[in-house]
Structure to design on (709 residues):
């Protein structure tokens, strides 16, 4: 599923999973056999065929879609039907099937042209309301073909915008065009952005003619193109990346405030991450992207260019998200949440390099990115991100590739062969690389640790240590369902768990639980508020609020209590690991920014004191990423990656959402302005950066002092 959609569940598992989930599809009308046309689209993941989308249309405005793919041991199977009026607005819609994690997808919509009354029923809600002519309906889950229809409808409107049935507004923008060679002719296509769906536009390529037929959907590592036109993937992707980058560059210019000269954050309480405690109020000085002094309140403001009033607020080191699959659209959401550093644990390698370079050059807003090198074994269940290998020798060559490009850690995945782990770990350690990731199928976590793992990802992977039998294939959805069904049976006070925790402590193994990635999967029934994001849903675009009531996992009467007890056991295990002295880091594998806040709340719910939770998200992360001498604390000489909060999250962890200013190096960001630009209602007003009157003149009179630009 495209990472640009901004839906929280798009952040789960691997980047490829995020790239394909929103194309889940279906269609609603019975087509007459005459005058039907059929289009077939190939679904590609990392250049390999992974499935197909078939679109059948008739002359009366009816369409039927079949969609199915497989990647990383999972994928959807869906059918969708829809019909439209003269304006291209849906008048009937139906979708059915199974989602990527096996949950039911079932939704219908109809609009009576005479009365204007729209009625819909889905797995998350039902409604009936009068709607204006031409209002557009957005299902909870929909296909690329249906989103193309919404774009076509908008392109018929003079203002290129229309009301949404459930509230809000959609609009469309044309961003780029291309001529593609095909059999001696040219295909004219254009890139369009559908705005209003989520916190970022939804991008599609349509034919650049009056009919605007669907042509392609492309993302790094994922493509949906007409059969026979797959060779155009690279050209379309590069032009789309350019268009997205241009858009994000404009936002960076609009939202980033350069901090020239000396800045002082006045009279602010600050979090000492090493000691996990709040220090008394101080004046904290910044210059050229570094913390230069921590002085008593009321210090001399001569030769200070700007100030920030920190009274009643708390200053924290910038937060780390230690389990990300970074995409263009994540940058602003992370910064608004105070996330100034992320660790990417699996991505398209070239795309990640491009993204990191643009952020480092200041062309695009985003956190500092440190990458893990993703290595996966080849199988029918492979995730096709990173580097796919067929042998131990190939795995060693992949380790060489990552080491020579400055990576510090490898991430191994589900299809990596267990017998390769020990020799590869030894080889990687000799090259100065750490090793971690998923536990390969047919292996247990304790075996991976003894074979050389320095880090374990995901609390479900840890819990499987006590649940799997030799024949269990955790490359499949079993790695989720087995934990949901049986984790509650694990005796956390038993010898086996105590011995396992002692093993982790002895080896210095780090654990990245990503608890927020599993909360809704195990706890939420369709139609219920999201346990992870329900508390912020009223701040989000209308379509996102509705989507938040859906769950891709099938939580039902038969398994709900088991799953709830199992998730509680997983949280309790996180608390036990912290108490045992095992190093935890805070990662999400989930919605950028918002999910890290929830991750920290879940650690507090697991029994970890809020101040220790903040240390996990700052000092621990910096230590594990070997950046502790550069960031993760507030101290003289550290980078000025900082988060100013209205409240005290060391006492009330939920205050972490009340960011009033975020500083990354020598750039300041107002979270409320970022959220407004993304269609999100701000949580609190931002704290202004105030220029000091006469600062320029004072510097001019001081010999040897630089002048402000």
């Amino acid at each position: 599923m495209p990472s640009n959609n901004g839906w929280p569940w798009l952040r789960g598992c691997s980047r490829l999973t995020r790239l394909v989930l929103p194309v889940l599809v279906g269609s609603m009308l019975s087509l007459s056999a005459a005058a039907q046309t059929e289009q077939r689209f190939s679904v590609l993941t990392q250049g390999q065929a992974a499935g197909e989308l078939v679109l059948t249309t008739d002359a009366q405005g009816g369409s039927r879609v079949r969609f199915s793919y497989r990647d990383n041991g999972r994928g959807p199977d869906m059918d969708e039907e829809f019909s439209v009026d003269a304006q291209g607005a849906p008048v009937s819609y139906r979708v059915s099937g199974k989602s990527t994690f096996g949950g039911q997808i079932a939704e219908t919509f109809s609009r009576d042209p005479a009365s204007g009354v729209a009625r819909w029923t889905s797995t998350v809600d039902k409604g009936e309301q009068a709607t204006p002519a031409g209002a557009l309906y957005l299902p909870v889950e929909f296909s690329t073909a249906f989103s193309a229809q919404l774009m076509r409808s908008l392109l018929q409107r003079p203002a290129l915008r229309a009301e949404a049935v459930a509230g809000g507004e959609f609009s469309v923008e044309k961003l780029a065009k291309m001529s593609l060679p095909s059999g001696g002719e040219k295909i004219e296509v254009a890139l369009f952005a559908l705005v209003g769906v989520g916190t970022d536009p939804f991008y599609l390529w349509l034919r650049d003619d009056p009919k605007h037929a669907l042509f392609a959907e492309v993302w790094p590592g994922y493509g949906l193109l007409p059969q026979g036109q797959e060779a155009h993937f690279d050209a379309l992707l590069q032009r789309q990346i350019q268009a997205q980058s241009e858009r994000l560059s404009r936002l960076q210019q609009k939202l980033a405030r350069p901090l020239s000269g000396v800045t002082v954050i006045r009279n602010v309480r600050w979090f000492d991450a090493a000691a996990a405690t709040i220090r008394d109020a101080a004046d904290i000085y910044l210059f050229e992207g570094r913390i230069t002094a921590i002085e008593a309140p009321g210090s001399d403001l001569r030769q200070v260019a700007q100030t920030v009033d920190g009274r009643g607020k708390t200053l924290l080191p910038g937060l780390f998200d230690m389990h990300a699959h970074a995409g263009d659209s994540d940058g602003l959401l992370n910064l608004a949440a105070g996330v100034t550093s992320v660790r990417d644990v699996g991505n398209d390698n070239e795309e990640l390099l491009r993204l990191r370079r643009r952020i480092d050059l200041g062309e695009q807003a985003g956190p500092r990115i440190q990458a893990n090198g993703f290595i996966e074994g080849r199988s029918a269940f492979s995730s096709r991100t990173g580097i796919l290998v067929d042998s131990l020798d190939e795995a060693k060559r992949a380790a060489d590739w990552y080491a020579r490009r400055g990576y510090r850690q490898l991430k191994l995945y589900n299809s990596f062969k267990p017998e390769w782990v020990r020799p590869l770990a030894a080889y990687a350690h000799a090259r100065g690389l750490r090793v971690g990731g998923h536990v390969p199928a047919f292996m247990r976590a304790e075996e991976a640790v003894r074979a050389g793992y320095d880090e374990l990802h995901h609390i479900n992977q840890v819990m499987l240590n006590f649940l799997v039998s030799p024949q269990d294939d955790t490359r499949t959805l079993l790695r989720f369902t087995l934990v949901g069904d049986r984790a509650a049976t694990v005796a956390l006070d038993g010898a086996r768990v105590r011995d396992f925790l002692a093993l982790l402590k002895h080896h210095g193994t780090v654990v990245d639980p990503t608890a927020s990635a599993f909360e809704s999967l195990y706890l939420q029934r369709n139609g219920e508020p999201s346990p992870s994001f329900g508390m912020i849903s009223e701040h989000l675009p209308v379509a996102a609020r509705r989507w938040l009531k859906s769950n891709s996992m099938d939580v039902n009467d038969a398994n709900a209590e088991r799953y709830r007890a199992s998730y509680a056991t997983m949280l309790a295990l996180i608390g036990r690991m912290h108490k045992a002295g095992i190093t935890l880091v805070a990662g999400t594998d989930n919605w950028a920014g918002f999910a890290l806040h929830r991750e920290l709340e879940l650690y507090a719910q697991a029994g970890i004191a809020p101040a220790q939770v903040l240390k996990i998200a700052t000092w621990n992360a910096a230590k594990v990423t070997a950046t502790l001498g550069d960031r993760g604390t507030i101290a003289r000489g550290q980078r000025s990656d900082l988060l100013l909060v209205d409240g005290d999250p060391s006492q009330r962890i939920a205050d972490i959402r009340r960011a009033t200013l975020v500083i990354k190096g020598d750039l300041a960001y107002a979270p409320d302005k970022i959220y407004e630009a993304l269609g999100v209602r701000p949580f609190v007003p931002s704290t202004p950066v105030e220029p000091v009157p006469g600062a320029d003149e004072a510097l001019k009179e001081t010999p040897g002092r630089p002048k402000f630009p």
Notes: The chain has 18 helices and 32 strands. The two ends are 44 Å apart (CA to CA).
